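Researcher: Can you fold this with zinc ion in place?
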Amino acid sequence: MPKSLARRIPPVRRGLAVSLALAAVFAVTIACADPVRAAGATLESDYVRLVFSNRDDIARLNKKIDFGGSGGWFSSSATTDVEGRLLRKIDAIYDKAQRILDMRKPQQQKLLVRVAGDNDELAATFLRIFKRKGSARAWYVYEYNTVYINVQDVNEGILAHEFAHSIIDHYLAVRPPRASAEILATYVDKYLFGEVQTRNDFQ
Ligand SMILES: [Zn+2]
């Protein structure tokens, strides 16, 4: 049975259209892979595999990801179908998180994103994984390389934050302390729409 080492992370205030991004990192000791429930749909982008329990949630998730504050950083004009638009947004967020962190290297495997249809489904997933009740809006499990979200309560900042956790944990040879990783991931969702700083002060 997995022993939960879960830890809640306090809410983070954001100054843009996205006002709150509450996220959590969990470490679990596992004996087997995350069991897969019958999926309603699966979509693959360059970086991410999205698993939906309900196909209708594809359009819902696409609506939840708002690039209104991006100042032209992202344009969805080229793709018209909802799946294509969603995948472009997902990859744009992942790519931006990599650039903000200055952590880019080929993925060993795509990040899995499990999209719950509502809070009850997310809570049931939490209970299944951690063997206790929890109220996290989203979280990332390193051992599964999986992000868990609720389509009814997600935004681009939450996605960027959780993607950042995966990027950080897979870039460094030794995973950083949780507090350090949290600071980095919080920076990513806070400055998702900002200019990427080039760090060459000593050159
Ligand atoms: Zn976090």
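Model: Folded with zinc ion in place. Residues 9, 23, 25, 161, 165, 182, 185 surround zinc ion (CB under 6 Å).
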